[in-house]
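TL;DR need structure tokens for one chain.
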Amino acid sequence: MDYKEIKKLMDDMGNSKLEELEIEFPDGVKISMKKSEKREVIVEPHVIEASAPISVPAVKPQEEKGMVAVEEKKEENYKVIKSPMVGTFYASSSPDKDPYVKVGDKISKGQVVCIVEAMKLMNEIESEFDGEVAEICVKNEDVVEYGTPLFKIK
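>> reply
TL;DR here they are.
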């Protein structure tokens, strides 16, 4: 890999929403990049004068907290298979083949569940868990980032 290719990777990383990137090439070259940009936001108070009274609806914080807690508990019941790299998600090995897994399928640890294409390499993604596919979080041919949830497993 030459300087121009590395510089292009750095520029692409700087212009993306990615925070961290690790790539290992078949020839043994490893590249690791991480953003550590800290931003400070300063908010200045502004006074608004109104000629008539303004009514603001009351919000009950306890009800909101209760609703959030219920949603979080539902999420906790699932194990999540996340993308180990940036690339394109493929549900099957080719367009004319059936997907590796569908919602409701029983899967076992080590079973191939999808492919993530990165830099023209097809990487088979294996399940880290035994269980049942509860949700497929991305669509076929979606671009995924490192850590993007791919599947939720019961």
